[in-house]
Amino acid sequence: MKIENAPEIKVPYILIVDDINENLKLLGDILKGEGYKIRPVPSGELALKVAEKEKPGLILLDIMMPGMNGYQVCSLLKENPGLKDVPVIFISALNETADIVKALSAGGVDYITKPFQTEEVIARVNTHFKLYKQSKELKELYATKDKFFSIIAHDLRSPFTAFLGLTQMMVEDVKTLTPGEIEEMAGIVNNSATKLFSLLENLLQWSLMQSGNASFKPESFFLQEKIADSLALVFDASTSKAIETVSEISHDIKVYADVRMLETIIRNLLTNAVKFTPRGGRVMVSARLTDHDFTEICVRDTGIGVPDHLINNLFMVDKRTGRNGTEGEPSSGLGLIICKDFIIKHGGTIRVESEEGNGTAFYFTIPNSPG
Asked: What domains sit in the chain, N to C, each tagged with a CATH number?
């Protein structure tokens, strides 16, 4: 299965609903002049179908229309879980207090009377569009917070519990342990500490990015050396599983990136590749120049692949995608989210191709020179 992540972000459009063509054209021209995308429809029934197919960012809704009136349209919108948060501004020649109250009771957020003034329409649309976007951003912030605390509660507690158990065992039994047993347990402790450090490093990087405090200092450098450094970081993990790691990076490929961010991206992708590749498998890193002043880097493995029910959620902060590796290695799912954020920071994109049982390939782009 192939999926594109970090897709093009669609700007929400404004749905204008009025049975009079002159009103549709006038309102459309006003809002297009302000830079908004608009979609005019002449009936309430059609408005519901259009909104269901592609969610609008705001709706301007007439009341007196043949067939379904504006009150009914708004009530049905508010009953739809996927559309209930879309702000509806009624725009009507009805100007009695009772009419306005009825419109607001049906779920409208505002009311404009006809004949309307251009300045009033622009001001009210701007205000409610801004409030809607702020509301969406707040929901995303809460999702981010929930993800963060979920990782803290689960993904840190489990490895720390195991880590503390091992150290306690060493303290209590140190006098009876043979040098070989002490060496073996020290290796396990070191491995646990390495995994904890990696998770804490990801949490720190992610929190800095979310708070806007992550430094971004891109520079030009040859890619091959940085890939070699990243492969060295997963050497112990890959060797312990007899996994071959291969770099196919040409020595002359140069990129323009923040070194620390790129290293974090590569480290996370390589760690995942090793984690989800069975013993005796292979992990490869390659790169090619694109036609658009970018280098596309690929991290490919011969691993177990990603199930269809997880692949669509890999880069979503509010979806839990962490699962254990082929030998029980823990995973939080946070690494891919960090990769996406860092890649977008560079102006690049990331996509994944995977087939369950036949490996996974992550492709991402990094600029070759300053934009």
From this structure: 2-116 (3.40.50.2300), 141-214 (1.10.287.130), 215-371 (3.30.565.10)
